[in-house]
Write a structure and sequence with these properties.
The protein is an alpha/beta fold and 123 residues long. Helices cover 17% and strands 30% of the residues.
């Protein structure tokens, strides 16, 4: 699971598009703002892209199918993860994106399971 946080227009969907390309699923990734979830299925792993901006309760979360997707062998990319912080597993990759200006972002990547592969990214 990839748990994004960051303001509107920070680049959460853009990073998800890059992940989709890297997974061989193509670049047709769009923001799931109104659909709440978009699925990108492939021969191997699938990418499930959530937008939790309008999710305010456990009942709202249940309607997205979030818990069912957690049982699949898929990558879950969750925008506005701070709205469901209590449901994000400890081993999720957390990506916080802060928009500095039109061309600049500060991206902080954090893991809680000793995974240090992102330790020197960007240097």
């Amino acid at each position: 699971m990839i748990a994004y946080s960051g303001d509107l227009g920070a680049g959460k969907t853009t990073i998800t598009r890059g992940i989709s390309i890297g997974m061989g699923l193509g670049d047709e990734v769009t923001s799931p703002t109104f659909a709440l979830v978009n699925e990108y299925r492939g021969a191997g792993l699938s990418l499930i892209h959530f937008d939790m901006y309008r999710i305010n309760s456990s009942a709202d979360l249940e309607t997205t199918g979030f818990f069912d997707y957690m049982d699949e062998d898929s990558v879950l990319a969750v925008e506005w993860s701070e709205n469901i912080a209590e449901e994000i597993p400890d081993n999720a990759i957390r990506i916080d994106i802060q928009r500095v200006d039109d061309d600049t972002r500060i991206i902080d990547i954090e893991t809680n399971d000793g995974d240090d592969r992102f330790e020197n990214i960007g240097y």
